[in-house]
Amino acid sequence: MLPYGRQSIDSSDIEAVARALRSDWLTTGPEVTAFEADLAAWTGGTACVAVANGTAALHTAYAALGVGRGDQVVTSPITFVATASTAVALGATVVFADVDPATANLDPEAAASALTARTKVIAAVDYAGHPAEYDELTKIAEGAGLSLVADAAHSIGSRYRDRPVGSLADVTTFSFFPTKNLTTAEGGAVAVRDAGVLIAARRFRTHGLVRENDQLRARDEGGWYHEVQEFGLNYRLPDVLAALGRSQLRRLGAFKARRTHLAARYDELLADVAGLGLPVRRDRVDPMWHFYPVRVRDGRRREVYERLRAAGIGAQVNFIPAYWHPAFADLGYRRGMCPVAEAFYAEELSLPLYPDLADADQDRVVEALREILR
């Protein structure tokens, strides 16, 4: 089966992991600190906190911003459920706002209309690697005294108005799952602009531990002493995985170039296929395409999905509207809340896209899709 996404691992990655395994540190060591510094080179200098996975990054981001019981988080339904579920885990209520029909990113007007006196955070999602409308969302958030979170699980390496993802919101979260733009096997990170929120994120990642003597409530207990002043979790990223991430970051530019090449080939080869909508790219955006989302018209999405799969081509659907999941339905969320998002979901199909995808394999995808839709 030709997958819709997969990791790209070479000998340099294997050597980096082997060096970490031979070192004195398997976790909480120097590779993590170095990985965070390397990441900051891709976020315009915004400080980064490495964590165990992308879901942990979202949970850490919301916790560091003080999201809790009684608060509301406004976000997009076209996302993996973790964008919303981690806010619920902290006791917040999620309010889903509709999306831009062209990009499937959070619609700023819909987000503004969803705000209430209880709103604490607006969380945008960079769908498929295309950054959201951060200038508009920033104005809305600042005008209402809110924090803006960027769920950039798909978009490390992308740019918006020539500014890198990671520098566009108060807090940005990344995922380094194998299908993402780079991988640490499992892993994620939080990029934070505010110094106080950065401290809170680092503490939440490590059980909430406070070790700095000048910040302890009891300061005369001895050098071993530490305190948990607010509860956190063990969301640490091991050095072994951070070493893989550092190696991957050295090739992120090449990964982007290859993904851009493949997306452009899809644009050209599929431009004249009837019944197929191609992804939109705004002029102000330089995306690192995470996957290539097409829209299959005329109610044929399921047929195309099943026939591609039968042909050994791993097309995928990204994503089921988050509030359709039974966990949200059981909380009272109902279908029909975001009609633009639901219309997008009804047609969306992701075609294979990853750095090691050969042009010949891409041609196979195109030929199969043409045959089905002719």
TrEMBL record:
Q: What is this protein called?
A: UDP-4-amino-4, 6-dideoxy-N-acetyl-beta-L-altrosami ne transaminase
Gene3D superfamilies from the xrefs?
Aspartate Aminotransferase, domain 1, Type I PLP-dependent aspartate aminotransferase-like (Major domain)
Family, similarity comment: Belongs to the DegT/DnrJ/EryC1 family.
An example Pfam family from this entry, by short name, is DegT_DnrJ_EryC1
Q: Which UniProt keywords apply?
A: Pyridoxal phosphate
Would you say which domain of life the source belongs to?
Bacteria
Q: Quote the gene name from the UniProt entry.
A: pseC
Task: Please list the cofactors this protein needs.
Answer: pyridoxal 5'-phosphate
Q: Which CDD domains match?
A: AHBA_syn
Classification via InterPro entries: DegT/StrS_aminotransferase, PyrdxlP-dep_Trfase, PyrdxlP-dep_Trfase_major, PyrdxlP-dep_Trfase_small
Under the heading SUPFAM superfamilies, the entry gives: PLP-dependent transferases (SSF53383)
